[in-house]
Amino acid sequence: MKYPQIINSRIERLRIKLEGVSKLLRGPVWFPHVPLALMLWLAGFWVLQGDWGNHWYSGLRSLAEGDFYFHLQMHKLPSLFIGSGMLIMGLALLWRSRLAWLVAVLLVITAATNTVLGRHAHAGPLTAYYLLIAVVLLLAWRSFDRSSVAASTLFAVTSGLMLLLYATFGTYYLGGEFTPPINNLVTALYYAMVTMSTVGYGDIVPRTDEARLFTVSVIILGVAVFATSLTAVVAPLVSRSLLRIVNRRSPKMKRHHHFVVAGNTSLATNTAQELGKRGLTVVRIVRDAAEAADAKGAETVVGDPSTAETLREADAEQATAVLAMLPDDAENAFVILAMRELAPGVRTVAAVNDARQLNKVKLAQPDVVIAPEVLGGELTAMLLAGETITSDFVMQHVFQNLKAGSSTGA
Predict the structure, then answer these.
(1) Which three-class secondary structure state does DSSP give residue 317?
(2) Which residues, other chains included, contact 163 with Cβ-Cβ below 8 Å and sequence gap of 6+?
(3) pTM exceeds 0.85, yes or no
(4) Could you tell me if 151 and 134 are in contact, meaning their C-beta atoms sit under 8 angstroms apart?
(5) 101 neighbors 37 (Cβ within 8 angstroms)
(6) pLDDT tens digits, residue range 366-389?
(7) Following DSSP, what letter does each residue of 6-55 receive, concatenated?
């Protein structure tokens, strides 16, 4: 065996061992959202400490009191907003919220830009750390696929509060450029609320270009934050209502000896159709109502197929077989693991889309692994080389049984 092959073999064995350790430690339960939340909290603390010192919370008190310290620290408001946003969005990441993931990416990129432009004493290491978080967040984007009402509400409250602080203290800072002049925080808060809500009573008017541009920014941000926050909070509620409607079965009937097909890939759709043509009962599990509409009349359950709750909704514990045919091989493995806990006796079939993930999927120990993509290269090479292609070879490579006594048919 050549050295590159030996190295690749050792790397593959190490990868399998790491997958086993991850399974033992229940990695999907806490990884990667918990480490990313901790990284974002640390970044937020550094942003606040970098401009406000170890006692950055005193800056908040000074802002509330409107004293002279605030006027000297006005240029540090961006870091206050960015750091506070990171601390709050770090909490929302624990819910695997897609919205929290997007806001976190924007915050770390903004923090890196602010650090470079602000010529921070440790700009190099800090910028590298912020960009590292951004890269890790982008690599882990598949893990943040949930629409959490709690996370969306947290985002709405945070963005609204930050906009209110920006509008209030900005108005107070530019108070002399309004008619009549604004010389206290209560009046600044009043003008901020009137402007953000686009009511505009007209009792306070900006009289300089700088004040007018500031007012325009408050109006635009107010409308944008209101629309985004409303969508972020309402969308998950509407989505859940649609899921309840789609998943509602009346009267409640317990399914037996049916086939559960998870996924909306071409393989999943064709498999479900072929099973239906043979008079077999099929239940599709899809992630959203839009995919349910593509199921072409098949009975569907909308939800995360890797959770026991969704599998129970499909009566997977009473099924003849559960077929994991999602586009992500890791998700297929999670479906198999969930079935191992829910109903170990039910036969499981896992599809492999990427040949490099074959050994990882096998770690979940499905009864049958369907790997048509793995076969394509071998068949092409055999055909061009003039070798004989037998049905036994095709069945052995397309349907790779992992347990003794399992038949190759699915």
Answers:
(1) helix
(2) 196, 218, 221, 222, 225
(3) no
(4) no
(5) no
(6) 988 887 766 677 777 777 888 877
(7) HHHHHHHHHHHHHHHHHHHTTHHHHTTHHHHHHHHHHHHHHHHHHHH-TT
Please state, in angstroms and rounded to a whole number, the distance separating the CA atoms of residues 279 and 299: 14
- 117-136 residue pLDDT tens: 776 777 889 999 999 999 99
- Give me the domains of the chain, ranges plus CATH numbers: 3-244 (no CATH), 259-401 (3.40.50.720)
How far CA 222 is from CA of 188, 228, 286, in Å, comes to 16, 10, 37
Structure tokens at 163: 């906009």
**Residues comprising the chain, all counted:** 410
Burial class (CB in 10 A: 0-12, 13-18, 19+), 264: buried
Q: Which amino acid is at 141?
A: W
* Other CB atoms within 10 Å distance of the CB of residue 343: 19
Cβ(247)–Cβ(313) under 8 Å? yes
